[in-house]
Every structure is written in structure tokens, then in C-alpha cells.
Amino acid sequence: MKAIKVGLLGIGTVGSGTFHVLSRNQAEIRGRAGRGIEIAMVADLDTARAKSIVGDACEVVDDARKVIANPEIDIVVELIGGYGVAKSLVLEAIAAGKHVVTANKALLAVHGTEIFAAAHAKGVIVAFEAAVAGGIPIIKALREGLTANRIEWIAGIINGTTNFILSEMRSKGLDFGTVLKEAQRLGYAEADPSFDIEGIDAAHKATIMSAIAFGIPVQFEKAHVEGITALQAADIKYAEQLGYRIKLLGIARRREQGVELRVHPTLIPAQRLIANVEGAMNAVVVQADAVGTTLYYGKGAGAEPTASAVVADLVDITRLATADPDHRVPHLAFQPDAMNDTPILPMAEVQTSFYLRLRVADQAGVLSRVTTILAEHDISIDAVLQREAAEGENQTDLIILTHETAEGRMNKALAQMQALPTVLAPIVRLRKEELA
């Protein structure tokens, strides 16, 4: 049977990994796909570098549209990234009747609804396993493996850079700025790490997972996003003393009123498996009604782990390309006419528990006044840690863990506590998830 011809747009880290994995494992991939899968064209502005990677194995051009226009190309793999030219090229490839594979989570989180609608109308496939958690097959698990389940919530460590930074802060007691510089030196963080450390990258991925899990459109603009730049070493230490670890989590949770979609630093009980995911590794926990809790763990980035997901998508398309489009697995798991308009909840309506750190005057009655304010707002306390003031000091830290409450209610309580004359610094508030 004639081999499937692939056109690669961009041959950077993931593109070169894809080329090498396909070349190295060609026989095994052919056995699984039922026919060969060959990269026939590569488009990259740096043609000299591209040719040094692929040699004489395929044609190299400097114009991506030449790949899209080639009638021999069956699948276009977009590895350029970003929202701009990548969107135009993906839509042009779809319009030309090409199947598309992409690792571009930013593009899908922002423009996925438009892209999937165009692909459905044209009868082509857009595959994107590599867009979330690198080599971990979480998209396939949500779309297919868990299709019998009603998914209740997803919580994931889905950005390796921030997980490396938090792991180093915890194990070495260092502050954020020091560890960030080390992460950049080691290549875990970019020169401009904003997308990672501000939580945007994780929010792109959480948005895609929420759409698949709950049958809703991708709605990145409605996600609540907080990064780790303001996180202090003291809070990591206090969390540890209370039996918790702090991770940047992407959370999507089904509630009666709507869907929570949020990314922020989160306290997790230290005995949970996901709390022990260290370094640049990724992990996703899914809670579903039939199967219960499942955990997916592995490398979330890198040339060959991500290439593994790209090639898996190529194999899937090769198997399904001749199938009736109406009987393929839908892009977002649910049939287009079965998607729902369940709203994304505003943060004031999100239900979670909290960690609070108050810098307070070391005098009688402070704890009593703080706990009274919480009680007045129907917020119950789970644990309190009150540090002894250091010798010669007249202030100390007061740590409070609460039970679950609405964020809006906590906001009102915090405003009252902050106004107390005995509260001497801005209150630190972190969210806590038991993930039970």
C-alpha cells in the first residue's frame, strides 16, 4: 500500500525529534499503522539547518505554503507555534483537504473552536496529542480511554519549568528568583520565561483538557490564571510542616452551576502521588465516576517525548483517514451537535480550601479576632499553626488552613482581616486541594 506522505512545517526541537523517531522506528510504525508514514517535505526558513537534519531523505523548502499546495502531501504537521502565521497555515491546510497534526496548545486554546469547526466541515482530522503534557497520552485517554465515564475533575502538573522551580525551592530552601536563574542556566526555562512562570502555558493545556472532559468549547479567555512569581520560600516551608506540598496545578472541575477552570499554586497533601512529582516531569490526575481516580505521569516536553505524541497522531490519522468522517472520534470527544454551553464559573463562585499566612503583632487576642471574622463568614478552620516570635521581635506568622468555602466569601473575610491593626503585612492566600 502506498505510504502516507507528511509535510513538516518547522523542524526545530520537536520537528527534528519527529523526523528521527519516524526514521528510526519506521518498520514498527508501519506494522502498527498498516502502511508506511514518510516525511516527504520540510518547510523551514533556515533551509541549511533543515537539510543538515534530513539530508537527502526529503525535499526542503523555505515556504510552508509550498507544502500545503503539494497534492502528494496527505498530512501537514504544524510545529511553528504561536497564534499568528500558524493559524493561517492550519486553516489553509484544512481548506486544501489535508489532515493536520499540531503541538500548538496556544493556538488550540484560543482558536480551537474555529479550527475544529473548519476541519469538521471539510471532513479532515486535526490531531493534537502533543499539545498537552508532551509524551503523556492524556488527550487519547480523555477522548477514548475514559469515554464510558462522566469525568468529575482533572488536576494536572502540566508545565515542567514551574515544577522544576517549585521542586528546587522546596528541596533547597531557595527563593524564586535564585531558582529561576538556575532553571534558565540548565535550559529548563526560556530567556523570557513569562508563559511558563505566569501560568499561561498551563492554562492553555487545562483549557483543552476541560473541553474534552466536559463537552464544552475551548474558552481560554475565561480561565483564571495565576503563576508562581509571587510564591515565597516561607510558604513552601510552612506547607511542608503542615503535611502539604505546593504545585502549580491546572484544574478543571464540574460543578452543578458550571465548570471551574483555573491555574494557580496549590497546596496538595504530601501523601498524594501527584504531590511527589518532582523536577521537570508532568502528571495529570483524572477523577471519573466509573473508573475512579487515574494518574498519568511522564515527560511533558523534549524532542523525542513530544515527537512520540506527534507520531502517534500520524499513526491514528493513517488508520482513520479512509473512515467515514461522521464515524471518527470527534476532535473534542463529543459529537459537534452534542457540545453544551455549560458556563465557566467566575472565581468568586469557585469552591476550594485555603492556606492563609498572616504577619501579626505578637499580642493577646489576635488569633481570637481572626477566627471570629472567619466564623462570621461561615468559614470553618481545619488547622492553625502559630509561630513563637523570635527573641527580641514583637511580631510573628499565623498560619491557617480552612475547609472548603466559596472564594467570594473568603475575599470578604480577607478584606476584614487585612484591615485589622494587628495584621502587619499583606495576607498571603493560597488555595488547597485534597484531590481525594
TrEMBL record:
GO terms for molecular function: homoserine dehydrogenase activity. Its EC number is 1.1.1.3. Pfam families: ACT, Homoserine_dh, NAD_binding_3. Keywords: Amino-acid biosynthesis, Methionine biosynthesis, NADP, Oxidoreductase, Threonine biosynthesis. Pathway: Amino-acid biosynthesis; L-methionine biosynthesis via de novo pathway; L-homoserine from L-aspartate: step 3/3; Amino-acid biosynthesis; L-threonine biosynthesis; L-threonine from L-aspartate: step 3/5. It comes from the Bacteria. The keyword Oxidoreductase applies. Residues 355-431 form the ACT domain. Gene3D superfamilies: 3.30.70.260, Dihydrodipicolinate Reductase, domain 2, NAD(P)-binding Rossmann-like Domain. Coiled coil: none annotated. Belongs to the homoserine dehydrogenase family. NCBIfam families: PRK06349.1. This is Homoserine dehydrogenase.
